[in-house]
From TrEMBL:
InterPro entries: DUF7604, Ig-like_fold, LPXTG_anchor, SpaA_PFL_dom_1, VWF_A, vWFA_dom_sf. Residues 1-30 form the signal peptide. Pfam families: DUF7604, Gram_pos_anchor, SpaA, VWA_2. Residues 67-80 have a biased composition (Basic and acidic residues). Residues 81-91, 809-820 have a biased composition (Polar residues). The chain crosses the membrane at residues 972-990. Keywords: Cell wall, Membrane, Peptidoglycan-anchor, Secreted, Signal, Transmembrane, Transmembrane helix. Residues 42-64 have a biased composition (Low complexity). This is LPXTG-motif cell wall anchor domain-containing protein. The lineage of its organism: Bacteria, Bacillati, Bacillota, Bacilli, Lactobacillales. It comes from Streptococcus suis. Residues 42-95, 799-820 are annotated as: Disordered. It comes from the Bacteria.
């Protein structure tokens, strides 16, 4: 036999084939189409072997080129659908966009914007507003209030906020994140302490009004001064640099040797005097100290020219539209009087009491004027103890008792006592929108073909309760109570009080309302006067009715005796005795009614005063009464006092005899309110208001979402409703992104704030108007849509569910939460409310969500013997990039392998990575398509649908000698070919030896 190669060459060729079989399975791709007869035939000559080998190589190379071309086409399609990663990418894929760096510079800043723009765009500017007109100030005030609401939930507050305006922000092409760098030529003037990266935030506003906090880079020079910032993200009309500080319940300020003040926690104290160059957006509070060295008695009516201006402190500011003065004291001086003037106003008000809430105006005005709000404090050198007639504030700090209109929920704690838990009832429920049902509060599940399998709707509701309370009514029985209410309403004042307490035909009285409000409520009544004939004052007060549930009082007990003055302290002394007799745990309320100023007062148990309003008697008795009250109220720190002045002259004169100064002081110190009542109708309205004031005040509902759900911004359908618990009538308070006409006066705002945190995606806040009262009449509910996140899918696949839904967390007709495994929908959800001037926070239960995934089982068998099931065959399920491994595993003894947690509307690729010994290894994957409706379709390498047998998709493997027409062989071809060549070489060698022999 003639052969063109020697035995050595045949051996080398065989070894080469065996080597290639272990390192390059792709070379033999074309050989997979060989028939079984060809693969098993005997090679008759070396020339034929070489020819086949050369042909195989050419086919392999051609096949590789086809694969590479196909992959290149896929990559091109991917690049077309993805956002460009560079300017070159953008230039290749879009003729309408180009990456540019626009530069802007003025006297305050330089700025560079790196972004993708449409053709012809060159305009861009970044400016620091140096002045605020009234319209812009109102917008900024609203913005800061929204920001404050968000920060307060992190126990933070804005110390300073500086705005950076951006013009032509819409020029940035949608879908590409711009990068903005701003450098400051002059200081931003951030105030509130040391500026560090830790206490700075960069915030912008979404188109829906929600806040976006950016992960910005802040740049500082060697001295620690902020000189610039850089961030990537959305460009709005402006961004804000926010200096934050811990939120405090109150701010204590010491002004030199003069006074110490307690103000609400939103008042900020600077370390140094403020300067106009700082240009803050907040309001400034300047305190001026006036002092007199003269001896004698000074009062709030003393002329100001008796005092000299001694010192000014300009270190206070606030972001709120008002500030609260909670108390003031001086260790060295007597506080004589205080005046207050709002910025840009000409009128100066003389304060009737040294605490309360005061409106403020911003430092800047549209006209260019710059002015602070001014608080004037007038001091006198301390007089000897016991001889001072000055207001008794010099030795006792007025503690914080939550003044009307001031909210402070900073340090609210969640009480676990049964009494506290009874204040209010609330629930959180969830409805799965992918179950085919029709939720009545959203239209997202109404459209045919809409994919809702990842959507849920959250419901948070609350209902107030009526709590029992006992009321002590203290009534003035001085002779002036026989005077008419006014020139029109001529009935006697005491008679108007009597009718208001008892009621009239067809009109319920206060006593009936009080005991009818709750079955446990009790009422007591004390009367007071000042009888000149008994200097000891032991006849100046009496108990008209002790604690009980009586709905009427005798007229004779209300009618004043003849020729009596007014002794507030006598009424307070007896009121204390009656209060001490009531040992119940119920809330206590006191109503104090008078038609005049005190004309008698107890000092160290001795009655002083002459019972008249002539001369200096009103001044002396006022100060004595205030001193007595300040000492008396310390025993009843939780007693709100509501004071009523039922004289038409009260408050209409600068004369102290008609000034309700003491009544104002008594109510403001205790969380009640003073009301001037000029007629009987106003008296009844005021008494009804007092009843309403005993109800709970609702502040807010806050839902901080977990990392497993996000606010469905595409269609949140946020809705707030009020449901009458008796009639079932539902009233919509908020819908379509706005408060409805029915919601005005109830709701303040509904906001969503996105956050980028490891344990939360954002929060939804429902804020009620200040001092909004609730009872058990209505239930208030907020609902909105959420979507499960990628984090939920990933954790379900790797770790499984980590929680179970709390009981009662399913919406009507839903069954996915209560007791079910899943992920919590919220990190924490809470309700904030005020009871007895004390803030409370109560947490909601936790619903859970699940991810709706699919799974399939693959069964591997022999291509000929289908009952021969192949185990230990390894597979990898990869994502759409064909590289990232989603899951992997090997077939079991029955040839089965199951892949779980596949997401809808996704495509996966199934690779066989290890064949069973003796079987070929396909190189191309199977395609696994999961449709939106969850249907799974598997296609083989030629695009044919893989049939399903029962619950399994059946795929086959071919033995090495079977050489099927489809599928890959791996190294089997080369092993077989190498063995054949070696056999042939051995045969030729044997024949050659025979010839030689």
């Amino acid at each position: 036999m003639k052969f063109m190669f020697g035995k050595r060459w045949l051996s080398i060729f065989a070894i080469l084939l065996l080597t290639l079989s272990n390192c390059s399975p792709t070379i033999g791709y074309a050989l997979e189409n060989m028939s079984e007869s060809t693969s098993s035939s005997v090679i008759s000559s070396a020339e034929e072997t070489v020819s086949k080998s050369e042909t195989t190589t050419e086919m392999s190379q051609s096949s590789e080129e086809i694969v590479e071309m196909k992959q290149a086409e896929e990559n091109t399609e991917t690049n077309r659908s993805d956002a460009p990663s560079s300017s070159q990418d953008l230039a290749d894929n879009s003729e309408e966009s180009v990456q540019k760096i626009l530069h802007y510079e003025d006297e305050y800043v330089t700025a560079d914007l790196n972004a993708y723009f449409g053709n012809g765009v060159e305009n861009f500017s970044v400016t620091l507003p140096r002045m605020k007109n009234s319209g812009k100030w109102d917008s900024e005030r609203e913005y800061v209030n929204q920001l404050s609401q968000y920060l307060v939930n992190q126990n933070l507050q804005p110390a300073d906020v500086q705005q950076i305006e951006i013009s032509d922000s819409q020029i940035v092409k949608e879908g590409y994140k711009p990068r903005l760098t701003v450098n400051f030529k002059t200081s931003l003037g951030l105030r509130g302490g040391l500026v560090t990266k830790e206490n700075l935030r960069l915030v912008s506003t979404n188109t829906d009004g929600s806040l976006v906090f950016h992960d910005a880079e802040f740049h500082f020079d060697t001295t620690g001064t902020l000189i610039g910032l850089t961030y990537e993200g959305i460009l709005g009309k402006d961004i804000h640099v926010v200096m934050v500080k811990p939120l405090a319940e109150k701010t204590t300020v010491t002004l030199g040797q003069y006074v110490q003040m307690q103000l609400d926690g939103y008042v900020l104290e600077e370390e140094e005097e403020q300067t106009a160059s700082n240009v803050p957006l907040n309001a400034r509070l300047k305190v001026k100290i006036f002092r007199s060295d003269a001896s004698g008695i000074f009062t709030i009516l003393s002329p100001i020219d008796s005092f000299r201006e001694e010192k000014t402190f300009d270190v206070l500011s606030t972001w709120k539209p008002s500030f609260n003065l909670l108390g003031i004291e001086s260790e060295k001086f007597d506080i004589v009087k205080m005046n207050y003037r709002q910025a840009h106003q000409s009128k100066t008000d003389s304060l009737m009491y040294f605490n309360g809430e005061f409106p403020v105006a911003s430092f800047h005005q549209e006209s260019g004027e710059e002015e602070s709000n001014v608080l004037e404090i007038y001091l006198q050198n301390r007089m000897l103890e016991g001889t001072s007639m000055i207001l008794g504030l010099r030795t006792r700090m007025l503690g914080y008792r939550s003044f009307s209109g001031f909210r402070s929920v900073t340090n609210a704690t969640v009480s676990n006592s049964s009494v506290d838990q009874a204040h209010i009832t609330q629930s959180k429920r969830i409805d799965y929108l992918g179950d085919g049902g029709n939720n009545p509060d959203t239209s997202v599940d109404d459209r045919i073909g809409t994919d809702t399998h990842e959507l849920y709707r959250m419901y948070l509701d609350m209902t107030g309760t009526k709590e029992p309370f006992d009321t002590l009514i203290v009534v003035d029985r001085s002779t002036s109570m026989t005077d008419p209410m006014n020139s029109v309403d001529t009935q006697a004042r005491y008679l108007a009080v009597y009718k208001a307490l008892n009621g009239t035909a067809g009109r319920q009285g206060l006593l009936s309302k009080l005991v009818g409000f709750h079955p446990e409520n009790q009422v007591a009544i004390v009367g007071f006067q000042g009888y000149p004939g008994y200097p000891s004052g032991d006849q100046d007060s009496t108990v008209i009715a002790n604690w009980g549930r009586s709905t009427s009082v005798a007229l004779s007990n209300i009618q004043p005796p003849y020729n009596n003055g007014t002794n507030y302290t006598a009424g307070l002394r007896t009121a204390g005795v009656v209060l001490d007799q009531n040992q119940s745990s119920r809330k206590k309320v006191m109503i104090f009614i008078s038609d005049g100023v005190p004309t008698f007062a107890f000092v160290n148990g001795v009655r002083y005063g002459n019972g008249t309003i002539s001369g200096n008697n009103p001044y002396y008795t006022r100060d004595w009464t205030l001193n007595y009250f300040n000492s008396w109220i310390g025993k009843y720190p939780k007693l709100p006092i509501y004071t009523l002045g039922i004289s038409s002259e009260f408050g209409n004169s600068d004369n102290l005899s008609a000034n309700p100064y003491v009544l104002n002081h008594m109510s403001s110190q205790t969380g009640g309110f003073y009301s001037h009542v000029a007629d009987s109708q106003a008296l009844e309205r005021t008494l009804q208001k007092i009843v309403d004031d005993t109800k709970l005040s609702l502040v807010s509902i806050n839902d901080q979402l977990s990392q497993y759900v996000s606010y469905y911004a595409e269609q949140p359908d946020v809705k707030v409703v009020q449901t009458n618990r008796q009639t079932g009538q539902v009233t919509t308070l908020y819908q379509n992104g706005a408060v409805t006409s029915q919601g005005v006066g109830i709701l303040q705002s509904v906001t969503h704030t996105a956050v980028n945190a490891s344990d939360s995606t954002g929060k939804v806040d429902l804020n009620f108007v200040d001092n909004f009262k609730i009872d058990d009449t209505y239930t208030y509910t907020i609902s909105y849509n959420v979507k499960v996140t990628d984090r939920a899918y990933e954790e379900k696949r790797t770790s499984g569910y980590n929680a179970h839904g709390d009981s009662g967390t399913d919406y009507t007709g839903n069954s996915t939460s209560s007791g079910q495994a899943g992920f919590r929908s919220n990190k924490v959800a809470s309700l904030t409310y005020i009871r007895n001037e004390q803030p409370y926070e109560k947490e909601y239960d936790h619903p859970v969500v699940q991810v709706d995934t699919r799974q399939f089982t693959l069964q591997k068998s022999d291509s000929k013997e289908t009952n021969l099931l192949l185990e230990n065959v390894r597979f990898e399920l990869r994502l759409s990039d064909k590289k990232t491994v989603f899951a992997s595993g090997e077939t079991d003894s029955k040839g089965n392998i199951t892949f779980t947690d596949l997401r809808r509307a996704k495509t996966y690729y199934l690779y066989e990575t290890k064949a069973k010994d003796g079987y070929t290894l396909p190189e191309d994957p199977w395609t696994v398509d999961v449709a939106v409706d969850g249907t799974i379709t598997i296609r083989d390498q030629l695009g044919y649908t893989v049939s399903k047998s029962g619950e399994q998709y059946r795929v086959v493997n071919h033995k090495l000698y079977q050489l099927p027409s489809t599928g890959g062989y791996g190294p089997a071809v080369y092993i077989l070919l190498g063995v054949m060549v070696i056999t042939l070489a051995s045969y030729l060698f044997y024949e050659k030896r025979k010839q030689i022999a």
